[in-house]
Specification:
Structural class: alpha/beta
Number of helices: 10
Distance between the termini: 33 Å
Strand order of the largest sheet: 5-4-3-6-7-9-8
Order of helices and strands: EEHHHEHEHEEHEHHHHEE
Largest sheet: 7 strands, mixed
Number of strands: 9
């Protein structure tokens, strides 16, 4: 029997089951400060990256979208806001966002945030604790699938991509927004210095958890580069795969279609 391949947890190689438990611990620790830390670490630029990803995803009234590793709902709320704007112009049924995250603490923080918004909870969002490698949906369930800054935390990335392909309808679209490989050596050097010296220090001050943010920085360095991830999308059976670099390749938006 072939042994299960190792998974990376930061710069360590661990058993896949161990990574699942370790990642759960990371996000349980940082859930309450997660959104604030995203703003601080990226100087707010993550909001621009996400808005560009949602524009490419282009959710429409009546569609079903899976927001995998959706965390506290940042991407889901952007989708709801965009579709509500479309509905005001031309009507149509509500969007359905199936937000799935492995970590119950992240879901709890997201539901609490929704409840505190002036507009109230978003009925378009259905919150589910679930696994990106074994999604709780039938084949061909969704019109679109998006995963934002979450796939590098999955124990088996290829298995998660295979699942994304399974749950999409024919013609369904896949988008993955993730930290990637800066295209220039100078930018890589600057980005490495910022990541390893500044981000863990911010985590220690704000989230009281340096180790979790040290892991997050290391996980970015271990994640496949743009071309490698595109090849994994091809292997999962997606067509017309590609990617767009943002901020010089600090982040990349990968795409593919279920054809």
């Amino acid at each position: 029997m072939t042994a299960e391949p190792k998974s990376s947890f930061g710069f360590r190689d661990v058993e896949a089951t161990e990574k699942v438990a370790l990642v759960r611990g990371v996000f349980e620790s940082v859930a309450d400060s997660y959104d604030l830390m995203n703003d601080l670490m990226s100087a707010g630029v993550h909001r621009i990256w996400k808005d560009m990803a949602i524009a490419r995803l282009n959710p429409q009234p009546g569609e079903t979208v899976i927001d995998c590793a959706g965390g506290t709902g940042d991407m889901a709320r952007r989708m709801v806001k965009r579709v509500r704007s479309i509905q005001k112009r031309r009507g149509g049924p509500d969007l359905r966002v199936n937000l799935v995250d492995y970590n119950g603490e992240m879901i709890r923080a997201g539901v609490a945030k929704s409840a505190s918004l002036p507009v109230g909870p978003e009925p378009e969002i259905r919150w589910t604790v679930g696994d990106a490698m074994a999604l709780p949906f039938r084949d061909g369930h969704a019109d679109a699938y998006v995963i934002s800054f979450g796939i590098r935390n999955v124990a088996n990335v290829q298995r998660a991509l295979d699942e994304a392909r399974r749950v999409l309808k024919p013609g369904g679209r896949f988008f993955c927004l993730e930290f990637s490989r800066p295209v220039s050596a100078a930018l890589r050097t600057t980005y490495d210095a910022y990541s390893f010296k500044v981000i863990p220090a911010i985590g220690e001050i704000v989230a009281k958890d340096r180790d979790s943010y040290q892991y997050l920085v290391e996980s970015i360095r271990r994640f496949p580069d743009q071309k490698t991830l595109q090849g994994m999308l091809d292997q999962a059976g997606f067509a017309r795969t590609g990617y767009t670099n943002y901020s010089g390749g600090v982040v990349a938006l990968h795409h593919g279609w279920a054809i």
